[in-house]
Specification:
Order of helices and strands: EEEEHHH
Number of strands: 4
Number of helices: 3
Strand content: 5-15%
Radius of gyration: 19 Å
Helix content: 10-25%
Length: 136
């Protein structure tokens, strides 16, 4: 879910500390660099043609076990915590906190779909989400 729906779709901006060249493009010292995390985590060459679909099974091998991390994701399966030298130093705490919180939610509540007026389950709309607010 960290890859699928981002808290900060454009990542945390960084400032270039020295003049640099990248793939023939000049990047001057002091330039603001904004990473499109939304696009990086939706890269179809890494996640397949259904990259925009919620599919945890993409991280499982043929035996249903957790597969090795996908290429270019630094053993995370996503780049939501950044990459390279600028990766979030608190990602291990964040991952552990998420695990604990999700485990507590699964223990404490019964997750079921809402029911319509006839008592039949309403299918979950995994593409229905709010794209406005504080971070969007």
């Amino acid at each position: 879910t960290l890859r699928w729906r981002h808290v900060i779709p454009l990542g945390v901006p960084h400032v270039v500390t020295r003049d640099d060249w990248y793939e023939g493009l000049y990047i001057p010292k002091g330039a603001l660099c904004i990473t499109n995390m939304w696009e990086c985590n939706g890269d179809r060459t890494i996640y397949g043609n259904d990259a925009d679909r919620f599919s945890p099974s993409r991280h499982l091998d043929a035996n249903g076990m957790l597969a090795d991390a996908l290429a270019d994701t630094h053993d995370e399966g996503h780049v939501s915590f950044g990459f390279g030298r600028r990766a979030c130093i608190g990602k291990h705490i964040a991952n552990n906190s998420l695990l604990i919180n999700v485990a507590m939610l699964l223990w404490a509540i019964d997750i079921q779909p809402a029911l319509d007026q006839d008592g039949k389950p309403i299918p979950v709309d995994s593409d229905g989400w709010v794209d406005e607010g504080f971070v969007m």
